[in-house]
Design brief:
This protein has about 110 residues and is mainly alpha-helical. The protein folds into 2 domains: about 20-60, no CATH class; about 70-108, no CATH class. About 50% of the residues lie in helices and about 5% in strands. It has a two-stranded parallel ribbon with strand order 1-2. Helix 2 (about 35-40) links the parallel strand 1 (about 25) and strand 2. The radius of gyration is 16 Å and the shape is globular.
Length: about 110
Amino acid sequence: MTASQVSDYTGAAALLDDIPKAQWLLGDRGHDADWFRDALQSKGIEPCIPGPRSRNEPVRYDKRRYRHRSRIEIMFGRLKDWHRVTTRYDRCPTAFFSAVAKDATVIF
């Protein structure tokens, strides 16, 4: 859990060692970085992350697979309906994760 003003790269770098075995990782344009792509590929994970429009060399990614990202966004939108998760009242990461898990269970 990071502060709200911390870049997504900081969180991604911290989680690289704990990423479970997967075939591919679906991410948004904010996670596009060459070092992140290389780290994923070294773990045998294919990144499905489009590059920003300002990138000099376009990045290849599976557009059909990327369309399923809307399901992830909808799930996070539903979690944000729970006021406790949105405002992050819990300062302890364990308590916050428990609240997210409970709310996700109710949504499911």
